[in-house]
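Entry 14. Ran structure prediction on the chain below.
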Amino acid sequence: MTLQLPKEMVIVRLPTLVIWAEGDAALPPALLDGLDAFVPDMRLVRVPGATHWIVHERPALVAGEIEGFLAR
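Output, structure tokens:
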């Protein structure tokens, strides 16, 4: 048995920031495909060369993106 929910029950209705490390082996960029259909007010920041440990590799970038997003 597969659980299926109506699309309107899984839509994120808040402004959302997604910072995506494009070199993440655990979470490949293909996981972003179709995300915008469920998160209509999404800001996507792709970070080339960053890995799963983006917070440690690029802390200033991550902090700056969050700060800018919260300031809007």
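The longest strand covers residues 16-21. Will compare against last week's run tomorrow.
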